[in-house]
From TrEMBL:
Residues 40-107 form the Methyltransferase domain. It comes from the Archaea. Keywords: Methyltransferase, S-adenosyl-L-methionine, Transferase. This is Methyltransferase. PROSITE patterns: N6_MTASE. GO terms for molecular function: nucleic acid binding; protein methyltransferase activity; S-adenosylmethionine-dependent methyltransferase activity. It comes from Haloterrigena salina JCM 13891.
Length: 193
């Protein structure tokens, strides 16, 4: 990686943080006994950290996807199968055994939004659900009938609101991990039908 590329990664790609670790731990625990060859998609892979953990620690085949081309490059350089995609748009109906997503979830005042890749990684718009809601509307199409979604949500975004919205799209929800910090509690929801 050249100096210019290194600068892009540091300023334009979300690097692993507490939310990434919580999601990776929960997904790896649940997918440890996945069938060999089952297919897992990480939406919004960023650095590829969560997808890399699933690849290393479970029998599943993992595809990493992100809207941000700098993230796709970093994930590929980490040895992952990575594609540029808006949420789940390019994936075939019913093709995925699990979908994992640590979405942009921070409620953001429109006046304070920055128009760059890091803003796309962090900002969930005014209510924090500007990316989560379309994801919930679309993910059922690509999920196998007995597949699961592992979705990171924050108390800042409103866990109950996300559970209610998921219910509108036919999903039941269970909290499989949580961790509290001074300003928020992070929860990993497993969504299933
Ligand atoms: C909070 S970061 C999480 C990064 C990484 N998965 C992690 O846990 O460290 C959210 C990621 O979602 C990506 N993203 C935002 N909107 C997206 C969309 N519509 N489709 C795909 N990825 C998106 C961002 O580029 C960013 O990499």
């Amino acid at each position: 990686m050249g100096l210019e590329d290194q600068r892009d990664v540091e300023t334009d790609v979300y690097q692993p943080a507490e939310d990434s670790h919580l999601l990776a731990d929960a997904a790896c625990d649940d997918l440890a006994d996945a069938d060999e060859g089952s297919l897992v998609l990480e939406v919004g892979t960023g650095s590829g950290y969560v997808a890399g953990r699933i690849d290393d620690e479970t029998p599943a085949r993992v595809i990493a996807a992100d809207l941000n081309p700098h993230a796709v490059r970093q994930a590929r350089e980490a040895g992952l199968e990575a594609v540029r995609a808006d949420l789940v748009a390019p994936f075939a109906d019913g093709a995925l055994d699990a979908v994992v997503f640590n979405p942009p979830y921070l409620p953001t005042d429109p006046d304070n939004e920055w128009d760059d890749w890091m803003e796309q990684a962090l900002s969930g718009g005014e209510d924090g659900r500007a990316v989560i809601d379309p994801f919930l509307a679309e993910v059922g199409r690509v999920l196998a009938p007995d597949g699961s979604v592992y979705l990171l949500v924050s108390s800042l975004t409103g866990v109950d609101d996300v559970v209610e919205e998921a219910g509108e799209h036919g999903f039941s929800a269970a909290a499989v991990a949580d961790e509290s910090f001074p300003f928020e509690t992070l929860t990993v929801l497993e969504l299933f039908r």
